[in-house]
């Protein structure tokens, strides 16, 4: 039943794409430079982040008149399932491949197949391990992703603005040892000015409930804590709840990273001081744009930073309205004329 | 009281008897942790911190009660956490469509119970191993939660739920009161009713239980349905706590509920156990996490400490009679 429905959806999508293709063919909207087809393999669609990324890929493909297919892992830990999806797609004749690997190495088999066939590969979001890429013999066309250290630094800048008098702040990370969480925290610590000190670092497994518990403990143990930095919005919202429970909303600044819809609303309400928003929708779009640029023979930059923008109460409404795109303009080197 | 003189020797004997200690592993561990953390940080037993520890433990206590019933029959419910997630997703589904709080709660409770009922029927009447059925339910319920919620959290802002999470009797939050009442009811059911006796009998020796006319299948259906219902209650507590219904996996609750039951001296082979032990086990795990955070211990050491404490407490059960 499930499979039949999926087949139906795929057919409908293909039909839709075909219509878009003919429409754009006559309009000539940059269609000549675009590769005929793009295949993308991304992480689990159980996460709104990757749902936005998928939408970015399909929307941009429709605009560029490209037939695209997006396959996703079933969950964030499904490394082998994701690898199977890429090897499956690699056997079909797509013009360009966009990959967002779960780990640095799990897609290496499919990448080797693509390298042998001479297909351009665009890496988005999570980087392919350079050693693994070399072993597979694949030359990545480009890498597009969020610079998490820079996102942490932006959060630190915002924290220093929120706490002009300085003071102790606590840092709440994701799963202990997680690379993304580590990079954001590293950036945050490096970006803090003199007056603001890191009181303590805890891990809350990316979970809202866990962050609430940890933050409640910290507020109880250190009533002088002035701010919290959380490595993602879900944890930031949990901390905001703990701060509200303690009756200290507005006195303790909570800043997190991601820019998901709930967090944008919370920023507008003043529960979160700020969120450093990343734009998976734009990352998906840029992936398709990079494929088009590669097909037209352009030389691509090796690494492109996807936009990260600070959302505070001042621009929260704007950010909510422009979602899933950023409120402020950003550089897209693939479409620059 | 002439018996005081004669009663004394057994008391000292009880002190020396490792079996007594083993039966109370969770209580002993909890007291030791409380003393150690209080010595290391004088603010540990402040009323505010006790309040927040109790609030943080409520959900785990509720799930552990359900797990204790299941384990007492010799089963294991690997689906408690995902059943809670499933119930939370149902709640969010209703809330997003403006069904009103009472109906959302009912839907969550019915949904949780339904998952438990299906597992119980498959195990009891379908004669499939507990482990396999609930492993399947773990995956199915978390998948169903994602489907219902479309992978997105639903923000739940409601004055009634806010009171449930923020209010209480003095320093005791309402969610703690709910957990405590459920624990007392569960204790009474297990030790003062025929059903409770049948639960322990079915776990202790299923053949003998059947021979005495107890329907083991019906008991299995009952305990899994109870575990599902408790997961539904836990879902409501979770939503009131975080202010959102999320289809997140919450796997730490599964592992901690099993750990709490083991710490609480419930035999994994079934047939013996109680409710006080698992409740204390759940408190112990919460206190441990809270204390390590209070002391500023690096997050890298925290899972290590939890593992050591669980295994150490399980080690005590070696001497159990």
List its traits.
heterodimer, A: 337 residues, alpha/beta, Rossmann fold, 2 domains, 6-stranded parallel β-sheet, 6-stranded mixed β-sheet, 12 strands, elongated, B: 321 residues, mainly alpha, ABC transporter involved in vitamin B12 uptake, BtuC, 15 helices, globular, disordered N terminus, TAT_signal (chain A), Substrate-binding domain-containing protein (chain A)
CATH topology of chain B: ABC transporter involved in vitamin B12 uptake, BtuC
**Topology order of chain A in helix (H) and strand (E) letters:** HEHEHEHEHEHEHEHEHEHEHEEH
Radius of gyration of chain B over alpha carbons?
20 Å
Hey, which two chains have the biggest interface? A-B, 32 and 36 residues
- Quickly name the level 1 CATH class of the largest domain in chain A: Alpha Beta
In percent, how much strand structure appears in the residues of chain A? 15-25%
Q: Characterize the largest beta sheet of chain B: strand count, sense, and whether it forms a barrel.
A: 2 strands, antiparallel
Class per helix and strand makeup of chain B: mainly alpha
What would you report as the Rg of chain A, rounded to the nearest angstrom? 21 Å
Residues in β-strands, percent of chain B: under 5%
Instruction: State the domain count of chain A.
Output: 2
In helices, the fraction of residues of chain A equals: 40-55%
Task: Please state the overall shape of chain A, judged from the principal axes of the Cα atoms.
Answer: elongated
- Spatially, the strands of the biggest sheet of chain B line up as 1-4
Shape of chain B: globular
Name the average pLDDT of chain A: 86
- Number of helical stretches of at least 4 residues of chain B: 15
Task: Please identify the top-level CATH class of chain B.
Answer: Mainly Alpha
CATH superfamily of the largest domain in chain A: Response regulator
- SSE string of chain B, helices as H and strands as E: HHHHHHHEHEEHHHHEHHH
The CATH topology of the largest domain in chain A is given as Rossmann fold
